[in-house]
Amino acid sequence: MDREHLILATQEIAASSDLYILIDFLNRTLKHKDLIFGLSKSQDEGKFTVTVYKTS
Q1: Could you tell me the residue ranges of all domains in the chain?
Q2: For residue 27, how far is the Cα from the chain centroid?
């Protein structure tokens, strides 16, 4: 079964060693609300992009 993911928001932020911990915490805490948080390296040096998805 395929699930669609709607992008609700994206935000570029400065790199931090705790970002992965934060994203994991958010995913574990809010998965029952059908939210997924993603983290990817930005094209800008030293920055990451956080994306919030809504599953359907």
Answers
A1: 5-55
A2: 8
